[in-house]
Each structure stands twice: as structure tokens, then as C-alpha cells.
Design goal:
alpha+beta, globular, 33% helix, two-stranded antiparallel ribbon
């Protein structure tokens, strides 16, 4: 009798367990890239949410923030499956406590996102929409350079394909069916933002360009760049997107692990390639990378020595990235 009861109890427990499992089952859809943008969503750039009142006590509010000439919002269409978590605009923060009678210098923001940070102390000086996702343009090539140095090595020689040599833009002047040292192609990317060099390096990767881009995304994930996505190695696609906060993580990694990348960026020229960065040659300029496509406007990542401190300036979506950088540098020297 006991055995029959135990058997009946066991059957009941099994049936109950199956019922729970069925109720708890979640059907996860198969994630794949849509065949066209008809399945896409539209992401509109976030406008500044205003100035943080608690951050500005004692400061002249009229001298801070973006004016009415700021660039208009950008609309970028992105496949749903590649969208990171929605970003939230971060109000302007000035990490500066002046004396009560101090007159703060005037500072106008003419960009979508700005970050000024002290890399030596990890202290943010200015943050303005630093969680705003934005097309990277050729800032992408910083990650391409990192992956190249780590996955390929700078001492190898590669044969450039016709596809790579005819990539959009001819700033690299790379010729097909010609041997190039990997380090030289990295320099072409950093000094002159060569798209053909970026494609050539990605193609040379053991598993091909598609997998090279996958590795770029994996590296971003490893570095905690949770709001970053890459679709190509050059930055021509507006779908290559990140935030100033994420870019900062990449810059800190490069400074620690691959400082030669910024060493290259300080070179006025490489062969017949001329560096368009106007800060090259200045004693306080520690390196940087420009980026521009129509969808992103002007981007600029730069490092400077200010009062013996390494200062990182990130500008995304500017009308004039260089004048904005000069204004920020002037501001830092005045405060």
C-alpha cells in the first residue's frame, strides 16, 4: 500500500513539475539582421534637457549651455536588433567651484555632445549629453587600429586588394596588388583617416572583414562600451555609433595599452599624406582623431597637456570641431 502511495505521489510531482516548466517557458525570437530598413526604427538625437540647477549654484547661468545655433537633431535609421539600450541626455555639469565673486568665462556649446575629462585624476570637468549616441565617422578607426595591432600585429606585410584600394575616399592613396607593412596602413588611418587602409586591414584578418567587425564589437563589449556598435572598419556607415562616455573608455585603453596610436596621430605627415589636424605640432597636443560624414557632422577626440595634466576632449556633432576645441582649451586655462 505504501509503495502504491509513493508511486502515485511521484507521478503527481512529475506532472506538477512539467506544468510549472510549461508555464515558465519563454519563447525567445531568433535575432537576425533585417533584410531591409523596412523593419527598422528611427532614433532621433536627444536635445539637451537643460542645465542642472544643483550644479550651477553661484554660477552665472547665462554664460553656460548651448545657444540657438546648435546643430539640428539628426535622425538615423538603425535595424532594431542592433539597437543598444536607449540613451538618456545628461545635463551639463561643470566640475568647478569658483569663489563667490568669481566671474565665470563665457562658454557656448555648438555640438551635440561634449566631454572634457582629466585622465590623470578621472575627474570630469565638463559633461554635456555624454550618453548621447552619435555616428562615430572616422573615430571608428581608433578601434580598427586597436584590433589590427592585437589581432594581426604591426610587423606583417599584406597585399592590398582592388576592393580595398577602391574604397570610398582616396585620402590614403593605397594601391592595389602592392605590399604594405601593417604599421604603415595603421599610420595612414590615423594620420589621414584612410578608408582604403581600414578596409585592407579588415580584409587581411584571418577570418575576413565581416568577422573583423564582429571582433570590433566584442572588444567594445569587453571594454564596457555598452552603447557602442560597429558595422564597418572605416566609419563610413552612420550605423557605427557610440557615446562620449564610451569613447572615453576606448581612449583610456589605448593610452594604457597602445600609446603608439596617439604617437602616430601627432605626425604632421606620413609619406605624401598630410595630417589635417591643426593642433599637430603644438607642444601640449598629445594626440587625437578626427571624424566626419554628413550624418555625424564634425567629430573630434583630442588629448592635451594642461597644467601638467592629461585632458581628454571629446566633441561629437559640431559645426566647427576645431574652434570648439580651442574655446574649451581657452576656458580651461582661464578657470
Amino acid at each position: 500500500m505504501r509503495n502504491n502511495f509513493q508511486s502515485l505521489l511521484l507521478v503527481i510531482l512529475i506532472l506538477f513539475s512539467l506544468l510549472i516548466t510549461r508555464e515558465a517557458k519563454i519563447e525567445a525570437p531568433i535575432i537576425k539582421q533585417p533584410a531591409s530598413f523596412s523593419e527598422s526604427v528611427t532614433v532621433t538625437s536627444l536635445t539637451p534637457s537643460g542645465v542642472c540647477d544643483s550644479c550651477l549654484q553661484g554660477l552665472p547661468v547665462s554664460s553656460i549651455g548651448a545657444d540657438n545655433n546648435s546643430p539640428a537633431s539628426l535622425i538615423v535609421t538603425i535595424p532594431k536588433v542592433y539597437l543598444p539600450n536607449p540613451s538618456t541626455p545628461v545635463p551639463l555639469l561643470l566640475n568647478f567651484n569658483p569663489a563667490p565673486d568669481y566671474q565665470l568665462p563665457t562658454l557656448n556649446f555648438k555640438a551635440k555632445s561634449i566631454l572634457v575629462s582629466n585622465l590623470d585624476s578621472d575627474a570630469d570637468i565638463i559633461i554635456y549629453n555624454t550618453n548621447q549616441r552619435w555616428p562615430l565617422a572616422s573615430i571608428t578607426k581608433l578601434m580598427t587600429s586597436v584590433l589590427t595591432l592585437e589581432e594581426i600585429g604591426k610587423d606583417k606585410e599584406i597585399m592590398v586588394s582592388e576592393t580595398a584600394a577602391t574604397a570610398e575616399g582616396d585620402s590614403g592613396k593605397i594601391e592595389s596588388n602592392k605590399l604594405y607593412k601593417v604599421e604603415d596602413l595603421v599610420k595612414a588611418m590615423v594620420v589621414r583617416s584612410s578608408n582604403d587602409a581600414a578596409v585592407a586591414l579588415a580584409e587581411f584578418y584571418t577570418f575576413g572583414q565581416k568577422n573583423f567587425v564582429k571582433m570590433m564589437n566584442k572588444k567594445a563589449s569587453d571594454l564596457g562600451m555598452t552603447q557602442t556598435v560597429f558595422f564597418d572598419p572605416s566609419g563610413l556607415s552612420p550605423l557605427n555609433q557610440s557615446t562620449a562616455n564610451d569613447i572615453r573608455k576606448l581612449i583610456k585603453y589605448i593610452e594604457k595599452t597602445h600609446p603608439e596610436i596617439f604617437d602616430y596621430s601627432r605626425e604632421a605627415s606620413f609619406g605624401n599624406l598630410i595630417n589635417i589636424d591643426p593642433f599637430v605640432g603644438q607642444a601640449n597636443f598629445l594626440g587625437g582623431k578626427t571624424g566626419y560624414i554628413e550624418e555625424s557632422k564634425e567629430n573630434f577626440v583630442s588629448l592635451f597637456s594642461v597644467n601638467n595634466q592629461r585632458i581628454l576632449i571629446i566633441i561629437l556633432g559640431a559645426d566647427d570641431r576645431f574652434s570648439q576645441t580651442r574655446e574649451l582649451l581657452s576656458y580651461l586655462l582661464k578657470i
